[in-house]
Amino acid sequence: MVAPEYSIVLDIVGLEVEHLNSGLVPNIAKIANDGEYAKLEPVFPAVTCTVQASLLSGKYPNEHGIVANGLYDRNAYFVSFWEQPSSLVRAERIWDRRNSCTSAVLFWQNTMYANSDIVVTPRPIHLDDGVVMWCYSKPVGYYEELRDKLGEFDLASYWGPLASPRSSEWIANAAEYTLEKHRPNQLFAYIPHVDYSVQRFGKSDARARDDLKKADDIVGRLVQKTSELGIKDKTQFIIISEYSFNDVQGAIPLNLVLRDAGLLAVREIQDKEYLDFEFSKAFAMVDHQAAHIFVKDGFERAARKILEATAGIDKVLDSEGKKRLKIDHERSGELVAIAERDKWFSYYWWHDEKKAPAFARKVDIHRKPGYDPVELFVDPKTKSIPLDASLVRGSHGRPADLETGEGLAFYASSSKHDITKSGIAKCTDIIKCLAAA
After folding, report:
1. Is 376 in a helix, a strand, or coil?
2. For the CA atoms of the chain, what is the radius of gyration?
3. Is the backbone of residue 250 left (phi > 0), alpha (psi -120 to 50) or beta?
4. N or C terminus: fewer CB in 10 A for the chain?
5. pLDDT tens digits, residue range 51-109?
6. How far apart are CA 436 and CA 204, in angstroms?
7. How far apart are CA 346 and CA 392, in angstroms?
8. How far apart are CA 365 and CA 373, in angstroms?
9. In whole angstroms, what is the distance from residue 16 CA to residue 406 CA?
10. Would you give the DSSP letter of residue 77?
């Protein structure tokens, strides 16, 4: 096969092979049927940062080190989520194999300072009197150029109670502009909005189906753009989703479980309780349906016993279990917990909501020691984020199950590649499909 001159890789969260025959995604179905498609086996945990790092490097988490959407700094006693520096990924990614190939990457994770010709990724600047809606870009000033052409990127449409397809539409417009002006050999664009509706409403809800249609419209527009530019016959489209969803009913407050067992410590400051990383014998960095449990020496057996006795937890991985799932990395917790299919993990540690830190009721993705999908909702009475984990209807992250099909995502390419076995493509093989200039 002659390698195409251009590749456009679209990461559309929540797509599944079953959607091809639904009538919702005709543009995606055409690409799939004209080329090839398969169910995609994500790496574990099937969460954004981890899967994206594997897609772009061809490596597993025990090699590239992105074991979750968050990181725990054992030296600084600090958890942070959604950190963006490219150097956090300890593996070569596709744009590092430069040759004469030019690349543009729009809104993928861990791309600040990446070795790509063009980068755009959200990086709001937090000031005492508000937030500057800014995006990091390379070359310097490219976001400002896009802003002048497309309008400011609205961070509220990207995450939080106002998250909507507007974020994906802006990214798609940026992709069209980038194609027209720079014509990169490889363009990567993240289309996130289906993620929001499935977490809010569940997989089968009409609003999630409507968002799939909108994602398909974006694909159609980008295909049309390549026609207008006269490069359609030279371009391969690769469409992937990072994971598929499970419908869920209820969350497990892992840190509260550990607190009640005497393993987690809190400090009370001005009548609010904060997790005490220094003196906790064990605490959980939660991420959808997976959680890293960081345990002090001598308390692993006690922590594991408590977790295994907790309703809603499916498995607890020790060192051997982590090796089997290729999550055995120094950044991983001593234990890794996996929720049952219809449950997810919340980060909560308080008994009394009045004791919850102020950031619990805000969209505050960096200070919470866990991913918080409840940030997609708002309490109409208080105009703040509620503390009601039962609102969440969709989650993900568990290991894919090849027998039942649980967790299998989506891969399609307008070109044919030999990466599928019995209709299954591995996340780490997608890198083989990308064309070199």
Report:
1. helix
2. 21
3. left
4. N
5. 999 999 999 999 999 999 999 999 999 999 999 999 999 999 999 986 778 999 999 99
6. 39
7. 10
8. 10
9. 11
10. T
* Strands (E) located in 133-281: 135-138, 186-191, 235-241, 246-247, 251-253, 266-269, 272-275
- Structural domains of the chain ordered from first start: 6-245+400-433 (3.40.720.10), 251-394 (no CATH)
As a whole number of angstroms, the distance between CA 31 and CA 433 comes to: 15
* Model pLDDT for residues 233-248, shown as the tens digit of each residue: 999 999 999 999 999 9
Tokens at residue 252, please?
């497990």
Written as six digits, the tokens of 401 are 């199950």
> Are 261 and 302 contacting, i.e. CB atoms less than 8 angstroms apart?
yes
* Helix, strand, or coil (residue 193): helix
Q: Residue 305 corresponds to which amino acid?
A: K
DSSP 8-state assignment for residue 248: -
**pLDDT value at residue 420:** 83
**CA nearest to 102, candidates 149, 139, 53:** 139
Count of Cβ atoms closer than 10 Å to residue 374 Cβ: 23
Query: Which residue's structure tokens are 């049927």?
Result: 33
Fill in the DSSP letter of residue 384.
B
Q: Could you tell me which of 21, 42, 141 has the C-alpha nearest to residue 398? A: 42
Nearest to 414 by CA among 36, 28, 161, 6: 36
User: Could you tell me how many helices (H) and strands (E) the chain has, helices first?
Assistant: 10, 24
